[in-house]
Amino acid sequence: MKKKKFTETQIVAILKQYEAGREAMDVCREYGISKATLFNWRKKYSGMEATHLKELKALKDENHRLKQMYAELSLDYRLAKEIIEKKL
């Protein structure tokens, strides 16, 4: 079975339909998702708006960038430490 990929804004729109009073099975049937997927999305994205999602994505991107910077600096430090120890 082919896996569908929904964007976060689409997921929030689907959840808003569910929260507005539509039956879970109706929403799942319309979008071709399982009930478990709907409830997992609800657990992860409940109460979020599009602006919150943009902020969350920006924070995730910044976190990823900072982790990469830390990894590079850690390697540079380790390399410099090995060079200094060999010279002594």
UniProtKB/TrEMBL annotation:
One of its GO terms (molecular function) is DNA binding. It comes from Spirosoma profusum. This is Transposase. Signal peptide: none annotated. One of its GO terms (biological process) is DNA transposition. It comes from the Bacteria. Keywords: Coiled coil. Pfam families: HTH_Tnp_1 (PF01527). Residues 49-76 form a coiled coil. InterPro entries: Homeodomain-like_sf, Transposase_8, Transposase_8_domain.
